[in-house]
């Protein structure tokens, strides 16, 4: 990373050297980003006049079924927003009741 910095922005190299990459710091930053993005999405959802939820379930190369939930909404200015709400792993079966349970848990968490 520092070698790339030498080429792209040598005047900022000191800033990159002072960034803490400890496990605790990275975890803390990821949690802060998650809270911020969740807050932004909740704010947008509060402005929707109409909304819909789309789901897609597929199985990856490791035979684990994945469920993704998208939220699409329209505000009073007819601006359309579509965001990924969550992605959940489906363990065991992928019956309708399993998908519905993960759907509920995904929107509540």
Automatic annotation (TrEMBL):
This is General transcription factor II-I repeat domain-containing protein 2A. It comes from the Eukaryota.
């Amino acid at each position: 990373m520092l070698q790339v910095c030498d080429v792209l922005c040598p005047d900022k190299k000191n800033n990159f050297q002072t960034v803490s990459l400890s496990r605790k710091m990275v975890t803390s930053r990821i949690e802060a980003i998650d809270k911020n993005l969740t807050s932004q999405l909740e704010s947008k959802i509060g402005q929707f006049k109409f909304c819909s939820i789309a789901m897609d379930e597929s199985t990856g190369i490791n035979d684990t079924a994945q469920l993704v939930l998208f939220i699409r909404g329209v505000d009073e200015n007819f601006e359309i927003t579509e965001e990924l709400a969550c992605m959940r792993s489906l363990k065991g079966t992928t019956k309708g009741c399993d998908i519905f349970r993960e759907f509920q848990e995904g929107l509540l968490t």
